[in-house]
Amino acid sequence: MGWLRRLALAVCLAVPLPGWGQTVVEGPEGARDVIVVGGDHYHPPYEFLDDDGEPAGYNVELTQAIAEVMGIEVHIELKPWSEVRRGLEQGEIDILQGMSFSEARTEQFDFAPPHAIVHQSIFARRGDPVVEVEELRGREVLVQRGDIMHDYLIEHDIGAVVIPVDTHADALRALAAGQHDYALVANLPALYLSRELGLTNLVPVARPFSLRYGYAVRQGDANLLAKFSEGLAILKNTGRHQAIYDRWLGPLEGGEGFPWHRVGQVGAALSALLLLILGVIVIWNRLLKREVAARTEELRLHQQQLIQADKMASLGVLVSGVAHEINNPSSLLLLNLPVLRDAWADAEPILEAHYRRHGDFPFGGLPYSRMREEIPGMIDDMQEGTRRIKRIVGDLKDFARQGGSAQAEVFDLNEVVATAVRLVDNSIRKATGRFEAHYADDLPPLVGNAQRIEQVVINLVLNACQALENPAQGIRLTTRHERSEGRVLVEVCDEGCGIAPEDMHRLTDPFFTTRRECGGTGLGLSVSASIVSEHQGGLTFDSRPGHGTRAVLSLPTRPADATSTSTPQTREQETDAP
Questions:
Q1: Can you state the angle between helices 348-358 and 368-400, rounded to 10 degrees?
Q2: Which helix or strand (DSSP H or E) is residue 539 part of?
Q3: What does the pLDDT average to over 86-99?
Q4: Highest mean pLDDT out of 151-160, 249-258, 282-291
Q5: 499 pLDDT tier (thresholds 50, 70, 90)
Q6: In contact, 247 and 235? CB cutoff 8 Å
Q7: pLDDT at 374 over 80
Q8: Which H or E run contains 327?
Q9: Cα–Cα distance between 335 and 267 in angstroms, integer?
Q10: Which pLDDT tens digit goes with each residue over 172-186?
Q11: 45 in Cβ contact with 188 (< 8 Å)
Q12: Which domains does the chain have, with CATH numbers?
């Protein structure tokens, strides 16, 4: 009988028990572990229970999208906020999908990067005086129980008489009914609920806080937090996060009466002008080469005609690629250029004067005090779009001109390479889980255009990423100093598909690409070769199909007297004005 007892004990130890590690929700046989995600049951439009009792809202759809891209299963539980917060503290809930950040809360919780910014407002009955937080001393202030504003009033000893309630709706109903003095609540949910509940006698009288809002876990649960942070980053990079944000929060942040039709007209005209300039550049380049070919001997003419015919065959693909790249910046211009020109530059002094005299007022469907903080972000988006357009035009100009006149500067090659790696970090992480970078300690300073060398390194790393067939294959980047040859080297090796022998001699030819169906234009290595040539350097490739590719960038060092009076400077990213 002893052996039977030992067998039973072994079976018990072999069976995994719920509660060890991640929370498990009972399910069908063979089902994977389920992550319990908590949220407020009545906090629209972020999270709430719909008419059928099902979770809905911005947070809910974002959580479901993260679960989809990360391949995890989640169970969303929406309950009163104080209950779900207590559930997270006690380990009954794994993660909260929407929690405002504060330094005090970091003692109990760890936070992911924010997926929204939530503004907290002081609401009052129409006609009541405008107050700041410090002026709430002795006043009866409604807050949601366990909410960030509840924590703040207690932690900072404001001196207000705190009246906790279960939901924002309870606070607003009580205030509208004449009970208590003020409600300190999140701005968007309060505006949403005021409209849905018909509480027309309530208005925001101040907005003292703008807080980061995102996922939160118990302190130390780094693995779970990393999964949701990575999923959120993927959604942001693919544009899916913005689509979810616009679907739920955009209608509340947008307003009626804005001249969107005029925005479309101005943006379309600007896009047409940019396309015309690009077309003139391409046509001018073609006509110039044709004229040169006509004035050479017969053999030269024949060779030039072949080159021109090859360019014409690739011109359609180039134009489509340029049109695709211009599309996103043009869209930003369509949305934001009139805001910058008409609303901000012209109206800001008038609006600010009105705000100082009369207090806050509706502007585009939201309080003006909120809109004036949102507009700078829109300006930043427009500037980024303009920079992308300028880079595209710059690549075409680099291809068209015969030489470069880039201004020389003293720079540290290791710093340039590290900056390039940071810029394409997202592409590297998507392509491989095995990226290695080794920087030599004895590199001398170089003289040249650091930004253009950075462009070459970016092209080499991106090509290596695109050559990989699965994330198990790796990329190795190395810098070293060849003193005997007076050169420094940047070597990028990948374990990808390799290059066919018949294509090796064409790698730096303009418009040559093996990725035409994926949108490649064949300008990357061509422009890179031109940049390296301007720096009296070399760009070589060694590859075999199925065994990866080795690309080596070599640059000459300078004599000691050329760099003795200068030291490498920390280089900032170029910020072009639109």
A1: 160
A2: strand 538-543
A3: 93
A4: 151-160
A5: confident
A6: no
A7: no
A8: helix 298-338
A9: 8
A10: 999 999 999 999 999
A11: yes
A12: 260-400 (no CATH), 409-563 (3.30.565.10)
Outline where 71-161 has alpha helix (H). 81-89, 148-155
Is the pTM higher than 0.85? The answer reads no
Give the three-state DSSP class for 40: strand
Residue 535: CB partners within 8 Å, gap ≥ 6? 448, 449, 452, 453, 555, 556
Q: Categorize the per-residue pLDDT at 212 as very low, low, confident or very high, splitting at 50, 70 and 90.
A: very high
DSSP string covering 403-456: ---PPPEEE-HHHHHHHHHHHTHHHHHHH-S-EEEE--S-PPPEEE-HHHHHHH
pLDDT at 199 > cutoff 70: yes
**Residue owning tokens 């705190």:** 162
Cα 246–Cα 252–Cα 257 angle in degrees, nearest 5: 105
Contact (Cβ atoms closer than 8 angstroms) between residue 558 and residue 536: no
Read off φ and ψ for residue 91, nearest 5 degrees: 85, 10
pLDDT score for 322: 61
Q: What is d(CA 59, CA 571) in angstroms, rounded to the nearest whole number? A: 39
Instruction: Please report where in the chains the tokens 């490739």 appear, as a residue.
Output: 541
Closest to 109 in 3D by CA, of 121, 100, 119: 100
Average pLDDT, the chain: 79
Query: How many helices and strands in the chain, by DSSP H and E?
Result: 18, 21
Q: Output helix, strand, coil percentages for the chain, rounded to the nearest 5.
A: 50, 20, 30
The sign of the CA dihedral 448, 449, 451, 455 is negative
The pLDDT value given to residue 89: 92
309: helix, strand or coil: helix
What is the b/e burial string over 401-434, where b = at least 16 CB atoms within 10 angstroms of the residue's CB?
eeeeeeeebbbbbbbbbbbbbebbeebbeebbee
Closest CA to 278 of 229, 248, 320, 338: 320
- pLDDT for position 522: 60
Give the total residue count for the chain: 578
Q: Report the interhelical angle of 413-423 vs 450-467 (nearest 10°).
A: 50
* 572-576 LR contacts (CB < 8 Å, sep 24+): 573/419, 574/451, 575/387, 576/386, 576/387, 576/390
Least confident of 247-251, 299-303, 563-567: 563-567
Mean pLDDT, to the nearest integer, of 241-267? Answer: 70
pLDDT tens per residue across span 122-138: 999 998 888 888 889 99
Query: Is 162:143 a contact under the CB 8 Å cutoff?
Result: yes
Least confidently predicted of 25-34, 280-289, 290-299, 359-368: 25-34
Please provide the distance, in angstroms rounded to a whole number, between the alpha carbons at the two ends of the chain: 85
Taking alpha carbons only, the member of 90, 91, 104, 54 closest to residue 75 is: 54
Find the angle CA(574)-CA(576)-CA(578) to the nearest 5 degrees: 160
pLDDT at 394: 53
